[in-house]
């Protein structure tokens, strides 16, 4: 393999009308940066020159990380109104031009996170009504407001190998104590290529 290029002290990902910066990821070997801006993914070189972008997200594209094992970019993707949460997986090698549509090109796939949905939609007070996207409720197990952070790292259970760690966003609600913890879910993504 070729050596990784030396890294600049900063990379300007540009200003985009799609919202503020949500996450970044770097492909050191390929010499690329990835930036998420709420409903837009931008790929640049290490000087900040745009190479390509992925548009068409109607949900909230958040934090990013690059998986050196498979060369793909992983991002949090929330559709709170639809009560759905995903990991978006981008094939960076296929992002070759600006404004590639996420729905009609083959640059992105998703994995549905059922456990997050169950915790987000949990009717914790047993009244038979899910109160929706609000922290001012006893609903949402652990105060789960969806997913926030995403990163590759070691297996927290020490089973060996790396894992994708997904962190919950947590609603602030001082009237409850079950939201005083950080919830981290880990996934072995090696079989997610299917």
UniProtKB/TrEMBL annotation:
Full protein name: Uncharacterized protein
Highest taxon above the source species: Bacteria
């Amino acid at each position: 393999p070729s050596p990784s290029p030396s890294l600049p002290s900063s990379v300007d990902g540009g200003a985009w009308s799609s919202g503020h910066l949500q996450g970044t990821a770097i492909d050191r070997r390929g010499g690329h940066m990835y930036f998420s801006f709420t409903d837009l993914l931008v790929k640049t070189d290490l000087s900040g020159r745009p190479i390509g972008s992925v548009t068409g997200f109607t949900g909230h594209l958040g934090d990013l990380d690059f998986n050196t094992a498979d060369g793909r970019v992983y991002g949090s993707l929330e559709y709170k109104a639809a009560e759905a949460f995903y990991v978006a997986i981008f094939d960076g090698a296929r992002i070759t031009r600006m404004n590639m549509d996420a729905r009609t090109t083959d640059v992105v796939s998703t994995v549905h996170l059922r456990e997050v949905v169950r915790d987000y939609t949990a009717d914790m007070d047993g009244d038979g009504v899910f109160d929706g996207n609000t922290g001012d409720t006893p609903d949402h197990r652990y105060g789960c407001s969806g997913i926030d952070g995403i990163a590759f790292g070691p297996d927290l259970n020490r089973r060996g190998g790396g894992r994708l760690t997904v962190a919950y966003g947590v609603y602030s609600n001082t009237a409850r104590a079950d939201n005083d913890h950080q919830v981290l879910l880990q996934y072995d993504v090696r079989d997610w290529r299917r």
